[in-house]
Amino acid sequence: ELKVEQNPLFLSMQEGKNYTIYCNYSTTSDRLYWYRQDPGKSLESLFVLLSNGAVKQEGRLMASLDTKARLSTLHITAAVHDLSATYFCAVEETSGSRLTFGEGTQLTVNP
Amino acid sequence: DTAVSQTPKYLVTQMGNDKSIKCEQNLGHDTMYWYKQDSKKFLKIMFSYNNKELIINETVPNRFSPKSPDKAHLNLHINSLELGDSAVYFCASSQRGINEKLFFGSGTQLSVL
Q: Cα-flanking dihedrals φ and ψ of residue B14, to 5°?
């Protein structure tokens, strides 16, 4: 059974700082997704990573995928309050199969 | 304009009742899903339909029955509601064969009293 683990689960950081969220998964996959969820809201797709070495950037967020290490990272640069949300990674074991979500990382950016 | 819409947004009901949640997507996707998010925000897939055909049926109580009248709609009916069914239920859709990014509905917060 595919297991997806994120760490940290809770992250409180100051504006302007950098930090990385990690997503580890237990079986071979080359498809990984990052989603954002604001409190009381739905999930919004951030990044789709479809191959080893894939790197995607949007604003202050950058996601990467290392399929050999079974690891994805979501790097936050110079955090701002608007980035406060819960971030989920999700892994698709094989094409067309179900997505397994990590537990989520609740990020709070303090002024 | 909403891509994936589900109703109702909030559902408060008594134990033992039967309720339905409706979902519609106007993205032309061929695959739709139901996810359950518990109080700890853990997301777990319940069902998936591809072109009205059930393709994923996780271990959920058979009190939960999905129905897909066409590929744009996936409804969830729940019989004999229990306290443990309280959660947020998300509908989602995707297009197989592309990157299969999920588009989520706004969620239905179900509270069973």
A: -90, 155
Q: By percentage, how much of chain B surpasses pLDDT 90?
A: 77
CB contact under 8 A, B45 and A99: yes
With CA atoms as reference, report the closest residue to B98 among A82, A50, A89.
A50
Q: C-alpha distances in angstroms, B39 versus A13, B32, B33, B36, B45?
A: 24, 23, 20, 10, 15
The proportion of chain B whose per-residue pLDDT surpasses 70, expressed as a percent, equals 96
Kindly report the nearest CA distance between residue B94 and chain A, in angstroms.
10
pLDDT at A37: 97
Tell me the longest C-alpha to C-alpha distance in chain B: 42
Low-confidence residues of chain A: pLDDT under 70: 95-97
- Name which of B43, B56, B99 is nearest A101 (Cβ-Cβ): B43
